[in-house]
Amino acid sequence: MTTINRDVIIIGAGASGLTAATELKKAGLTVAVLEARDRVGGRLWTDDIDGAMLEIGGQWVSPDQDALIETLDDLGLATYERYREGKNIYINAAGELSRFEGDIFPVPVQTEHEIVSLIEKLDVLVAEMDPERPWDHPRAKELDEVSFSRWLESQTDDQEARDNIGMFIAGAMLTKPAHAFSALQALLMAASAGSFSNLVDADFILDKRVVGGLQQVPLLLAERLGDDVHLGQAVRTLRWSDAGVTAITDGLEVNARRVIIAVPPVLISRISFEPSLPRRQQQLHQHLSMGFVIKVHAVYDTPFWREDDLSGTAFSPYELVHEAYDNTNFEDPRGTLVGFVADEEADGVFTLTAEERKQRILTSLSHYYGEKALNPVVYYESDWGSEEWTRGAYAASFDMGGLARYGADLRTPVGPISFSCSDMAGKGYQHVDGAIRVGREAAAAIIATDAK
């Protein structure tokens, strides 16, 4: 067992942990980043699959993500716009396909009115919320005690309007059924992007990608940290007191004054704390769970949909693949589609064989793009639910009533222990931008304490 001493230990080499470590090192503190995996990046993972570069994890950059954009500039990383020229596709409950332009799906006039009305109502509620403190919303407890699906039912009788608004939060973001999370949790998701209008605007929320892949952010941050990053070092035990902390892995023991736990909250219980965490933290971690989504990558010889004047953007709450986009890499002559299968639909297809699941998913894509979609040259499913050190995607959210009850203590330090993760962010919640923001804040709090 090797023993080392540092000022601060960071558990987790995702964007949040590496950002915190970078800021601490800039301030003159010594750090050790302990990562369970054999790679850095956490839920950012760019890999070569059968000769195709795929963003297995997070990938998009939106114009409001200041912290991420600053980091990209600092690291010298270039971005490019997601392809969006041409018409979008929508499939209704009857299976009828429509091509459209603009922000609102081609639905009956009354349904369109109801969709616009719901967006306006949600924007009003979001405007009353500080994403850093959603539990302070004047109706926080009330909104946290009603499911998002029940809230939608209380606002309109139009099923298609409810299905579409629900899709943007349930399928596209929290990746849980709309009956499984509260209206307050839905509002936080919208507030984290500035408004519900921003959240439903694909041209805003899915604006740009990074040339060469978004995992370059943690890779380059880790490169700067050098030997301070220790891979394959899952922390088994964390001993702590007011005097400091000791993190113990299978081959390393690190002593420090402080520790930042920068992993998804569902993984915190994987660490044995000596002494145990306080009652409040033990309870609140039990009320958080990961969502579940399959990110499907289909690479074709050419982006054939563009020949039909299609943007590649497709939506339907009634399809197995509820949303899909042109995900072609920068200056790549091949075409790539990315689609998403979320929550209960994802549960269902994982009862099938791999080949049956592939055919079901490709058949759903063909409903949008035609028979050519059935024959990709590369096909891959990002299944974060089977990742030992993630256990779901995109992020963790509270169960009914949990956000108002426990949210204020989610990032509250415990003695020398701080917490940092995109799952704990306000602005940028669930996104790399949020991971960077919280990482900066966790580091700044330690630096400020040291300065006293």
Automatic annotation (TrEMBL):
Residues 16-447 form the Amine oxidase domain. FAD binds at S16, E35, A36, V235. It comes from the Bacteria. Its EC number is 1.4.3.10. GO terms for molecular function: putrescine oxidase activity. Its cofactor is FAD. Keywords: Oxidoreductase. Substrate binds at F340. This is Putrescine oxidase.
